[in-house]
């Protein structure tokens, strides 16, 4: 009986968790508030279990993870991509064709336990233009 009640409580918690999960949107743009070739917003704070949808407002963008607290993820050129944020930590990501131009972004999911590793990996990314953009986004991780 006790285990049946536990199972019900766990099921209830999972259902509530899903109902409360937020859906975030990140636009992929040729030009935005932070300059040319940007994700908007470039920094996003989310909760574990939320989803983020990358929207190809402009074509020829392709989001891919550089650092994640869990599984790596990758989109297809010019297509929307929905990523479920299953693990707490920091995601650093880039646009495959525009990484060198500084088309990068950061998603913080709950507590940023892997922030140091994310910063180290970010420092090693080959970004030629808008180099301060990623630092600016990472500085918003608290
Ligand atoms: Cu791009």
Description:
By secondary structure, this protein is an alpha/beta fold. The protein has a single domain (22-138), classed as Cupredoxins -  blue copper proteins (Immunoglobulin-like, Sandwich), CATH 2.60.40. The strands form two sheets. The protein has a four-stranded mixed beta sheet with strand order 2-1-4-6, with no helix packed on it. It has three helices and eight strands. The model has no long low-confidence stretch (mean pLDDT 91). The protein has helices spanning 2-20, 115-123, 131-138, and strands at 23-32, 35-40, 43-46, 51-55, 63-67, 81-84, 89-95, 104-109. Bound molecules: copper (II) ion. Copper (II) ion (CU) is lined by residues 37, 61, 95, 97-98, 103. Copper (II) ion binds at residues 37, 61, 95, 97-98, 103.
Itemize the secondary structure elements and their pairings:
Layout: H1 2-20, E1 23-32, E2 35-40, E3 43-46, E4 51-55, E5 63-67, E6 81-84, E7 89-95, E8 104-109, H2 115-123, H3 131-138
The structure holds copper (II) ion (CU).
Residues 37, 61, 95, 97-98, 103 line the site of copper (II) ion.
Order of helices and strands: HEEEEEEEEHH
The fold-level CATH name is Immunoglobulin-like
User: In CATH, what is the homologous superfamily?
Assistant: Cupredoxins -  blue copper proteins
| Total strands | 8
Number of domains: 1
Q: What is the rounded distance between the termini?
A: 43 Å
Shape: globular
Report the sheet with the most strands, covering strand number, pairing sense and barrel closure: 4 strands, mixed
Small-molecule components bound: copper (II) ion
Q: What gyration radius follows from the Cα positions, in whole Å?
A: 17 Å
């Amino acid at each position: 009986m006790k285990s049946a009640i536990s199972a019900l409580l766990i099921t209830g918690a999972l259902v509530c968790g899903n109902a409360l999960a937020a859906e975030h949107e990140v636009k992929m743009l040729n030009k935005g508030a932070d300059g040319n070739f940007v994700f908007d917003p470039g920094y996003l704070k989310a909760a574990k279990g939320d989803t983020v949808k990358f929207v190809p407002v402009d074509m020829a963008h392709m989001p891919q993870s550089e650092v994640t607290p869990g599984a790596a993820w990758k989109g297809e050129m010019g297509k929307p991509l929905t990523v479920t944020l299953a693990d707490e930590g920091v995601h650093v990501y880039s646009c495959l064709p525009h990484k060198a131009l500084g088309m990068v972004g950061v998603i913080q999911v709950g507590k940023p336990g892997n922030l140091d590793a994310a910063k180290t990996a970010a420092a090693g990314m080959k970004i030629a233009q808008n180099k301060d953009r990623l630092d600016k986004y990472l500085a918003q991780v608290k």
